[in-house]
Amino acid sequence: MVLFYMAKKFRFVLKGDRAAKLEEIKVAAARSGIAFQGDLSAGCFQGEYLLFGQISGTYVITGDTITVTVDEKPSVMSWEGVRSRLRGFIEG
């Protein structure tokens, strides 16, 4: 059975130097098998999250806010679980 989800957006505040923070996000996500690609304005991410399944989406940075749109997530992971993991990557 294939389950389809509507994309979901999450917003987080970036604290400190945005360039340094984006690099921290890329490193933290990579440790979990997720590749973030892009720059200080926008980009995308995708990968297999800890054997749970594929996760992918995009991000946009405006001022000190990063808006992450998740297009695909592991079916066994709740949206709150996705938000929690993203918060971990972004807020440290």
What does this structure look like?
The chain is an alpha+beta fold and about 90 residues long. The chain has a single domain (about 10-90), classed as TATA-Binding Protein (2-Layer Sandwich). It has 2 helices and 5 strands, in the order βαββββα. The chain has a 5-stranded antiparallel β-sheet with strand order 1-5-4-3-2. The termini are far apart. The relative contact order is 0.24.
Walk me through the topology.
Elements: E1 8-13, H1 18-31, E2 34-38, E3 42-48, E4 54-62, E5 65-72, H2 79-91
Antiparallel strand pairs: 1-5, 2-3, 3-4, 4-5
Quick take:
It contains two helices and five strands. It is of the alpha+beta class and 92 residues long.
For this entry, give a set of tags:
TATA-Binding Protein; alpha+beta; single chain; 92 residues; 38% strand
Sketch the topology as an H/E string, one letter per element: EHEEEEH
Mean pLDDT rating:
89
Provide the structure class: alpha+beta
- Give the strand tally: 5
Strand content: 35-45%
- What is the overall shape? globular
Name of the CATH superfamily: Kinase associated domain 1, KA1
Main beta sheet strand tally, sense and closure: 5 strands, antiparallel
Note poorly predicted spans: none
Tally of individual helices: 2
What's the CATH topology name? Answer: TATA-Binding Protein
